[in-house]
Each structure stands twice: as structure tokens, then as C-alpha cells.
Amino acid sequence: MNLIRFAMRNASGNSARSWIVFFCAALMAGFVIASTLVIRGANDSLRLALDRLGADIIVIPEGHEQRLKSALLMGIPVHCWMSDTIADDLAALPGVAAVSPQLYLSTLRGATCCSVPEMFLIAYEPETDFTLRPWLEENLEGGLALGEAVGGSLVYVPAEQGKLLVYGYGLDLKGSLEPTGTGLDQSMFFTFETAFEIARLSSEQAVKELDIPPRTISSALIKVDDDVDPHQVAAQISAEIQGVTPLETSTLFQGQREQLLSLLNSVVALLGITWVLTMALIAVVFSLAVNERRRHIGVMRALGARRTTVLQSLLLEAALLALAGGVVGIAVASLAVYLFRPLIMGLMNTPFLFPAPLPLASLGLGALVLALLGVTLAALIPALRISFQDPAISMRE
User: Which of 214, 242, 270 is the last residue of a domain?
Assistant: First the structure.
């Protein structure tokens, strides 16, 4: 008889114990994939957000640090202003390679241009910009013109309008940026020229006027020279320019990173405990199942079945149950993480990016291998004991 069919028949003949092994494998694989998705998704989200910023230092008005982090992480719009002359002061500092000012605005709450209630608007200066430029050069020849914008992955054009209405002004969405899982996904980028045009016409076209104080900016993004330490430049900014706060992007989300590290340590400890307990339970279940089959296995050996054949059939039975349970556990856990993303983000106060299909498949395969390895190792000791026992002794017991 084919070993696979034989193993499947043995598994179905001990349905209660087989279900226990199945659920243990599902628990093991599901816990691994769920914890990996959450930790890796949060870490990838923070990394992509920093890459999207593309700056070494962000200079903002003093007292707005937490609000800016909330805007970047969760998409909560922030309004802050400082004199545009600060950009010139920053550019004059030694070690500063480039300075690009930005304006932070927001749509009216309940805007129809986004799949979220409120959207974070960022105006940039094309002449000095170095954050969007790589994407624009690759995807939009000539950059953005007046009345054009690019948006995060959650920004869309309502089908019935054909344009994005921002304070009554119709914007052409020229492209969407890759998702980051952060507030940048519900943000929209356009030029200073477009921002001032929206503000100028908002008194006539919008329910509420967009007010941009003259000669102001909200932040200044800084890129330092290659051989310069951003920390030294940040310290110099704090000492020489009053009323501003320099935020080093390398430490911008330090609190969230420390939280992830603490969560990772807890998950690893919990995973180890779960792994040991699950393997112990599977070993006990397989020992009981093997003891029930002593005479059956003794007859097989007496009829000429080799020890390796008996061992292979028992381990194959464990592997089949592990594969079935692992696949189900991975599918259920992945679906649960995907559906409860907003709840996870709220509980952790950290953005979260669900992986693309190919990376998800790789993570699932890794979790499946761990479940398969764990169940097979747990079944190995009772399988070895019975397969190498003398057939006569097995038949008498």
C-alpha cells in the first residue's frame, strides 16, 4: 500500500487524536505568522515612511514635535507656521547640503477626495525638493504643474467628479505613491504654486477659506553632506536658530521602535513557551496513538515490513497533519491580521503595512516549515521507540 494512503488511513482511524495534532499545528503556525506579520508590518511601515521623507533632519516650529509625528504616522493633519527666512538661515549653516521648505495643510473634514475622513496636504517647492524628485523623475517627466498632485495609496479620484476637489479647487491626480502603512498614505503632494492658487480661490469656491499666512512655511527638510554627522548639524540648529526644533529622522520614531523591540522580545519568549508546550502535547498524543497500534505494527513487522517503513509511515502521518493544520492556521491568522489592521494600529499606536502577496507567501512558507518541523520532532521519539521494538514483544502487549 502507498505510504501516503496508509498514513492518511491511520490518521483518519484516530480522529480525536488527529484533530488534536491538527489544532496544535494550526496554533503553532498561526501564532508564528500573526506575530511576524504584526512586527514586520510595523517595522516596514516605519522604514518606508523614513525613506519617503528622504531627509536627514526636519526642522519645525518649536512645540509641534508630537503633532508632526502623529501626522506622519497616523495621517492626523497638523498646522504650524514659521518664517520662510529660516530656510535661508538653515542653508547657510556649514554641513547642510540642501534645504527644501514645505507647507502643511489639510482638507475639510469629511472630504470626498479620500477614503479617510480627513487628508493631510503637503505643498513642496519644486526648485529645492529632493524628497519627491526621484519618484517624479521616474514616473512623471517634467514634474507637477499648476493644478496637479500626487497622492498616497489611499487617495483616489471620485468617479462622479473626475477631479480631486480641495477647497472647491479641482486637482488632477497624476499618480499614486507606494503604500507605507503610515499617514503618508492618506496625504497629497502638490507645489507651492498650486497651494497658493487653492488658497486664493477658496474664498469663492469653498465652504471654508484656506488661510496660508504670508511668507511662512511649516517645515524645512535638510540633507547634510555625506561626511557630516546629522546630530552635529541638529545641535547647531538648536543653538543658533531660535523658535525651531530640529528632528533627526534616524531617531524620529524612536519610541515606536523601542516598543517594537519590546514586543519582539515578548513574542519570542511567548513563542518559545508555546512551542515547547505544543510539542509536549503532540508527543503525548502520538505516544498514546502508537501504544494503541502496538499489535498492528507488530503484525506489520512480522509480515516483513522494515523498521524504516514503519518509522516513515508514522512520521508521514505526523507531517500530513502538520501540513493540513499549518495551512489552515496560516490562512486564518493572516486573514485575521488583515481584517483587524485598524484595531492593531490603534492598540500599538504604530502604523502597520500588510505585506504584498509574494512576501506574504514567503512568510507563510516559513511558518509552515516551523510547524512541520515541530510536529515531526515531537512525533519522532514515540515513532522511533515503536518502530525499533521487537515484533514479538509488540504483538504480546
Answer: 242
pLDDT of residue 114: 46
In a domain, 58, yes or no: no
- With a CB cutoff of 8 Å and minimum separation 6, the contacts of 246 are 57, 58, 59, 222, 233, 234, 237, 238
57 belongs to a structural domain: no
Distance CA 339, CA 376 (A): 32
Residue 311 has a pLDDT of 67
Q: What's the grid cell of residue 130?
A: 529632493
> Which residue range(s) make up the domain with 331?
3-46+256-396
Residue type, 146: L
Q: For residue 111, which phi and psi values (nearest 5 degrees)? A: -60, 150
SS3 label, residue 139 = helix
Instruction: Examine residue 214 and state whether it is found in any structural domain, yes or no.
Output: yes
Query: Coil, strand, or helix at residue 352?
Result: coil
Same domain, 264 and 391: yes
**Cβ contacts of 68-72, under 8 Å, gap ≥ 24:** 68/219, 68/247, 69/252, 69/253, 70/183, 71/104, 71/120, 71/183, 72/182, 72/183, 72/184, 72/252
Of the candidates 242, 271, 294, which is a domain's last residue? 242
The verdict on 188 and 274 lying in the same domain is no
57: CB partners within 8 A, 6+ apart? 221, 222, 224, 230, 233, 234, 237, 246, 247, 248, 249
- Residue stretches of the chain with pLDDT short of 70: 1-15, 73-75, 107-118, 158-161, 253-259, 289-311, 349, 383, 385-397
Q: What's the confidence (pLDDT) of residue 67?
A: 79
β-strands 82-83, 244-248 pairing: unpaired
**How many domains, in total, are found in the chain?**
2
Buried b (16+ CB within 10 A) or exposed e, 79-102: ebebebebbebbeeeeebebbbbb
